[in-house]
Amino acid sequence: MAYSFPEEVLEHVFSFLSSPRDRNAVSLVCKSWYEIERWCRHRIFVGNCYAVSPEIVIRRFPELRAVEMKGKPHFADFNLVPEGWGAYAYPWIAAMAEAYPFLEEIKLKRMVVTDESLELISKSYKNFKSLVLTSCEGFTTDGLASIAANCRHLKELDLRESEVEDLSGHWLSHFPDSCTSLVSLNMSCLGSEVSFSALERLVARSPNLRTLRLNRAVPLEKLANLVRHAPQLVELGTGAYSAEIRSDTFSSLADAFSACKQLKALSGFWDVVPSYLPAVYSACSGITSLNLSYAAIPSSDLVKLISQCQNLQRLWVLDYIEDSGLEALAASCKDLQELRVFPSDPFGAEPNVSLTEQGLVSVSEGCPKLESVLYFCRQMSNAALIAIARSRPNFIRFRLCIIEPQAADYLTLEPLDAGFGAIVENCKELRRLSMSGLLTDRVFKYIGTHAKKLEMLSIAFAGDSDLGLHHVLSGCDSLRKLEIRDCPFGDKALLANAAKLETMRSLWMSSCSVSFGACKLLAQKMPRLNVEVIDERGPPDSRLESCSVERVYVYRTVASRQRLDIPDFVWTLDEDSSMRYS
Amino acid sequence: MLSHLNLEATELRLGLPGSDDLPSTNKRPSPEDHQTPPAPKAQIVGWPPVKSYRKSTAAAKSAEAESGMYVKVSMDGAPYLRKIDIKLYDGYSHLLTALEDMFKLSIGEYSEREGYKGSEYAPAYEDKDGDLMLVGDVPWEMFMSSCKRLRIMRGADARGLASAQH
């Protein structure tokens, strides 16, 4: 049967398969399909850089053009992963520089990228086109200068949310005059001012530029000049959106925006002076994505802008919008699919704005296409959650953060089990859930029973016992990522569900009740899991085996369990079945 | 044309934007209202789960207000530079008096047409575009936001500056 189709035909058929899951499935059919597929796979996604090694990847896939990879676990975003844990990009970059001279795209998330890595990228790949670094760190603007200077065909440079050591704005001036290929530039995370004339010339000579996200340092007075050079922009991130009120600045800005007929997304808006917001009104009817999460302005000004955007699909905003603003949003933006409301004062003891559960209830009721929510607030009730679940059974992502840990239903003082239970019961397509507030083991029973499509679950300060964790691990058939902090979950549930962990990408548990002894046992039982005990108090065997570890990170891997870059506060199982450290 | 420009909104004042029309809060009136607001609670690591660059736009604004605007001040012929916080001064005369004290010199009177004519020294500053400008030409607020460093020039050199700009 393997000889019925010539290889070329199969290869041609496979070329229509773009999703990694489809390609993975195809490669499992038989040995000859595995061989054919691996030679024609050009894009690869590695969800955990430690799940596999560069050598294994290179050996299997000799013709890669695009690599996407993730490093640190999600909780690293909130400082729960100590500095120096790992996720270094350099070994990958160095290995791929040898193996893939025609590599075009690199996308990294939560990895440590050095200037050395960036320089190597810029010099090793003659046809390099796209670099996207999300939430990365470890590099400076010198590294960016290498990329600008050496990548002759660069189309995309996107540094979203990365932490860059900003030595100066000179890097941008390294783009040679001959570089006219830019399609996307996102420098919003940088602090320093770049040379405006260099930026202006770069924009003017990039006819394919679709995405331009400036940093805060680009002043509003100069924005019109830039926009005028790029009326074809689809996504624009402004710099600081404030200037002295002058009618010529305003009209110049308004004119520039009215020339942008393709604009779909707006972001930036640091330091907003509300009087300048009407300058973008001409573009609003086409806007589908609006990121106002840095705009510290009152609800009325936010609403004036938002109600111009009838086709809005995605809105990110600060809680200054308040319940009243969300009600207005629900009335005017019927196409809304994603809403994120961020806290303006997350550490304040008292609420500084009038944003409650009611805002979320209004939007859930009013926006029939709403499927993805991230909402920070200071009070919640089961009644509200139940209403939300009933209005909106089409949620796929539901992330709720009630700012006070273990906050009960403020009306009944009960746990919020029933509310979250309603969410998982009604929203049958739910793929991602983050919970907060007062929660007992009961909510986990509901989750295990109903959340069959759930892929990622984040839990904090919840539950009563191991039973909670057991419900989740035994019930959630589609679970890939589980992250838990400050919950009384321990050894029993973990060891009873050891096999489950191999079907998942990773499990993170910090400040829970997992003992060192259990970690060792788990690692012994499951040779294809890497069980990393991350503990800054010194060697775990200097304490009782029954003592809880600070953090444990468990992930499946086909690479060695002794990663070479392991720091001195991480312990994994050694070959001779004992926990050792380097 | 100017009717849509809500000039009131741009008045410089301390406090969060919109704090005049105070958004209603959930606070129920209580005896504690008369006391100072409660101190922020001890923070739990990584909670609430907000990425560091998002942490408290409001706090960031007040932190900026507290952190000062330090610029280097050089004087032609002096062996080393000084640093001052221009936020501390409420206007040009206040700033110039302070510079006179600091460097033990006299700067004299500013005139739009002739700069600091007649004085031994004249104050200049480097703005955001890297240009050397005479201190005093632009409104104080604009100066504060565009001044990157100060340079006290000898009168003779500065006169060239003044005539070049006028």
Short recap of the structure:
Chain A: Pathway: Protein modification; protein ubiquitination. Chain A has 582 residues and is an alpha/beta fold.
Main beta sheet of chain A: 22 strands, mixed
Radius of gyration of chain A, whole Å: 25 Å
Based on the structure, what is the oligomeric state of the protein chains? heterodimer
The major beta sheet of chain B can be summarized as: 5 strands, mixed
Integer-rounded radius of gyration of chain B: 22 Å
Low-confidence stretches of chain B: 18-35, 58-66
Give the CA-based shape of chain A: globular
Summed over residues and divided by their number, the pLDDT of chain A gives a mean of 95
Greatest contact pair?
A: A-B, 55 and 44 residues
Question: Overall 3D geometry of chain B?
Answer: elongated
Strand order of the largest sheet of chain B: 2-1-5-3-4
Low-confidence stretches of chain A: none
How many helices of chain A?
Answer: 20
Determine the strand fraction of chain B and express it as a percent band. 15-25%
SSE pattern of chain B: HEEHEEHEH
- What is the SS-derived class of chain A? alpha/beta
| Helix proportion of chain A | 25-40%
Describe what you observe in this structure.
The complex is a heterodimer of chains A (582) and B (166). With 582 residues, chain A is an alpha/beta fold. Chain A has 20 helices and 24 strands. In chain A, the strands form 2 sheets. Chain A has a 22-stranded mixed beta sheet, covered by helices on one side. In chain A, β15, α14 and β16 form a beta-alpha-beta unit. In chain A, α15 runs parallel beside α16 (441-450). The longest helix of chain A has 12 residues, at 247-258. Chain B is of the alpha+beta class and 166 residues long. Helix content of chain B is 25%, strand content 15%. Chain B is elongated and about 60 Å long. The interface between A and B is large, with 55 and 44 residues.
